[in-house]
Amino acid sequence: MSEMGEFSDSDGEELVKVARKAVTEFLRNDSKIQDVGFDSKFDFSSGVFVTLNKQGSLRGCIGYPLPVKKLSEGLVDAAISAATRDTRFSPVTADELNDVVFEVTVLTPPVEIKVERSSEYLTEIKVGRDGLIVENTFASGLLLPQVPVEYNWNVEEFLKHTCQKAGLEKDAWKDEVTKISKFKGTIFKEETPNGKIVRELSDDFL
Q1: What CA–CA distance (Å, rounded) separates 131 from 100?
Q2: Of 177, 175, 104, nearest to 138 (Cα)?
Q3: Given CA atoms 200, 1, 23, 185 in this order, what sign does their dihedral have?
Q4: How many CB atoms lie within 10 A of CB 47?
Q5: What are phi and psi of 201, to 5 degrees?
Q6: What pTM was computed for the model?
Q7: Are 67 and 109 in contact (CB under 8 A)?
Q8: Residue-wise pLDDT tens for the chain (206 aa)?
Q9: Are 111 and 125 in contact (CB under 8 A)?
């Protein structure tokens, strides 16, 4: 793959495996992996998030919402940060890795949703397809497209929770000064720790 576009299942498998390898190398040897072939294959800029789950619960999630880094570099940095720098959790230890499920979400560039009235957001956003970024003054928050699916939220609930993620009132999405952008995500994850890697959402959602 030479540019941002459709990702094959084998691409996804490689991305998730490298995320796990990056965290393993960092935790065990305090070093960052280098893979010339991987760097060359994924040398285009892209937003990316790495999510870690342990026994069904979130263990870390960090990434880049904007295409500010090459995907190869952003993936490695996001994986290490999700494991060690998510302030909501204590750092992951090497002994935990066999209990952690790795998930990678590659993002399309966010696009601002232009509406004349806030009620139009409810028809412009599709649960399961869109991720959201809410920005208001100096606050911003992001939720990935798989989050409302996991919690069975409707569009309005999705908007409210994204506002709360930004540290805003839950109905801030109705304010004229609030900017809401959406993006799509291609998601790959392990079914079990270090197990089979699958595409999380069907193409019908994307």
Answers
A1: 24
A2: 177
A3: negative
A4: 25
A5: -115, 145
A6: 0.89
A7: yes
A8: 444 458 999 999 999 999 999 999 999 999 999 999 999 999 999 999 999 999 999 999 999 999 999 999 999 999 999 999 999 999 999 999 999 999 999 999 999 999 999 999 999 999 999 999 999 988 999 999 999 999 999 999 999 999 999 999 999 999 999 999 999 999 999 999 999 999 986 444 44
A9: no
d(C-alpha 2, C-alpha 84), whole Å: 30
Both structure tokens of 80: 């290490």
Which domains are present in the chain? Answer: 9-107+185-201 (3.30.700.20), 111-183 (3.30.1490.150)
Hey, how many other C-beta atoms are within 10 angstroms of the C-beta on 119? 10
Q: Are 190 and 16 in contact (CB under 8 A)?
A: yes
